[in-house]
Design goal:
Organism: Actinomyces graevenitzii C83
InterPro entries: Aldolase_TIM (IPR013785), Methyltransferase_A (IPR040072), RNA_MTrfase_RlmN (IPR027492), rRNA_lsu_MTrfase_RlmN/Cfr (IPR004383), rSAM (IPR007197), rSAM_sf (IPR058240)
Strand content: 15-25%
Cofactor: [4Fe-4S] cluster
Number of domains: 2
Radius of gyration: 22 Å
Subcellular location: Cytoplasm
Bound molecules: S-adenosyl-L-homocysteine
CATH superfamily of the largest domain: Aldolase class I
Keywords: 4Fe-4S, Cytoplasm, Disulfide bond, Iron, Iron-sulfur, Metal-binding, Methyltransferase, rRNA processing, S-adenosyl-L-methionine, Transferase, tRNA processing
Length: 409
């Protein structure tokens, strides 16, 4: 019988200095012998987030109002206030009978996120929010204005179980999945802030959503899918954001990439690859112990075939660890082997911790990496490093605020 084990993508003969992810404990580790510990277990939450209209489709919202003895047909107006006017304040809802406004809002628009911090960076074009949820758990989102778009980076989980050693959230472990409405509330608040001119440059329309905040969206698949529905469907169901402006970023849960391809929502898939060979990726991305680079790239290519959406390959460049030109060539070969024009590569300068092995590549090394990919015909765009002065990389703000509060108590 054929051996069904995946073929491992090996590194060719090594050239250049090689720093390994195991040379130091994970970034932010609290003990010197700390090891990345991958976990798919979702801890049992202490209680459930209050039910919110964004957890339900329109029919579900009508049903919920009916069960509460309120007029079901008001679900439509309530939904439009939420998804079109970005409000949950009864005083704004003058088209609803004054006697019912509060009851309707109490029933379907509970307060889910309270703001702990809002930090501005990049001359006011970036705002990083730290939110506290009903149970005291904290998550972040980052709002970024660009010339041609305004993007929100949302969290899908509090903490993360994927344990990537260079990622601040990865060191926290997973606290819990966010409810659909906890994800959607991040978007509603950012959409209101953009509209109200809180970003430098005046009022803006929130146009793009990326699932690149805290957490692994695929581990929270059951709440991710309804969140994508609320994002893409037009009012009164949802915000009506184009699927092509939504990016779901994953560390590589292959079966769920395949499932996402069948959901009929052609969102952009981003794959956090960070290494083209299993030898390095096994240590850099712990989930590689389950699904190898070859399987992941096959699934990503299937996603492209099924949706027509070009896949983003994320590659955080880490000095002397994964930034060798031969790795750029190996990556290009692996992509080209599967077809042309189906993927583009996003090298990301690592949010560095000077003095540790987790530092970003030297500029000329980064340039050589990019040139190698481009020479091989791969579209390559270096990701800008928005918000790095406000602990922009995922999980860093939450970790920093927690440390400050510990110092103060
Ligand atoms: N779990 C998902 C989404 C969250 S992380 C995923 O892994 O894709 C979003 C992106 O930020 C990922 O590509 C992740 O690898 C990257 N990232 C994490 N820590 C980083 C750091 N210190 N510097 C640069 N990118 C980082």
């Amino acid at each position: 019988m054929a051996d069904s084990r995946p073929v491992s993508i090996a590194a060719p003969r090594r050239r250049g200095r090689q720093v390994l992810p195991t040379d130091q404990p994970p970034e932010g580790a609290t003990s010197p012998d700390a090891k990345p510990r991958l976990s798919f277990a979702v801890p049992v939450a202490k209680g459930k987030a209050p039910r919110h209209l964004a957890d339900l489709d329109l029919a579900g919202r009508k049903q919920a109002l009916k069960e509460a003895g309120l007029p079901a047909f008001r679900a439509d107006q309530l939904s439009r206030h939420y998804f079109t006017h970005f409000t949950r304040n009864p005083a704004d809802m003058t088209d609803l009978p004054a006697s019912q406004r509060t009851a309707l809002c109490d029933e379907l628009l509970p307060d889910l996120l309270s703001q702990v911090r809002a930090l501005k960076a990049d001359q006011g074009k970036t705002i990083k929010y730290l939110w506290e949820l009903f149970d005291g758990v904290r998550v972040e989102s980052v709002l970024m204005r660009y010339k041609d778009r305004t993007t929100l980076c949302v969290s899908s989980e509090a903490g993360c179980g994927m344990a990537c050693p260079f990622c601040a959230t990865g060191q926290m472990g997973l606290t819990r999945n966010l409810s659909t409405a906890e994800i959607i509330e991040q978007v509603r608040q950012a959409a209101a802030a953009s509209r109200d001119g809180e970003l430098a440059g005046g009022p803006a329309r929130l146009s793009n959503i990326v699932f690149m905040g805290m957490g692994e969206p695929m581990v929270n698949y059951k709440n991710l899918i309804p969140a994508l529905h609320r994002l893409t469907q037009s009012a009164p169901e949802g915000f009506g954001i184009s699927a092509r402006n939504i990016t779901v970023s994953t560390v590589g849960l292959v079966p769920l990439i395949k499932k996402l391809a069948t959901e009929g929502m052609p969102v952009t898939l981003a794959v956090s690859l960070h290494a083209p060979d299993d030898e390095l990726r096994d240590d850099l991305i712990p989930v590689n112990s389950r699904w190898k680079v070859g399987q992941l790239l096959d699934a990503a290519h299937e996603y492209f075939e099924a949706t027509g959406r070009r896949v983003s390959i994320e590659y955080a460049l880490i000095e002397d660890m994964n930034d060798h030109a031969w790795r750029a060539q190996l990556l290009a070969d692996e992509l080209n082997k599967r077809g042309h024009g189906w993927a583009h590569v996003n090298p990301i300068p690592l949010n560095p911790t000077p003095g540790s092995i987790w530092t970003c590549s030297r500029p000329q090394v980064q340039q050589e990496f990019v040139n190698t990919l481009r020479r091989a015909g791969i579209t390559t765009t270096v990701r800008d490093t928005r918000g790095s002065d406000i602990d922009g990389a995922c999980g860093q703000l939450a970790a920093e605020v927690l440390q400050q509060e510990r110092r103060l108590s």
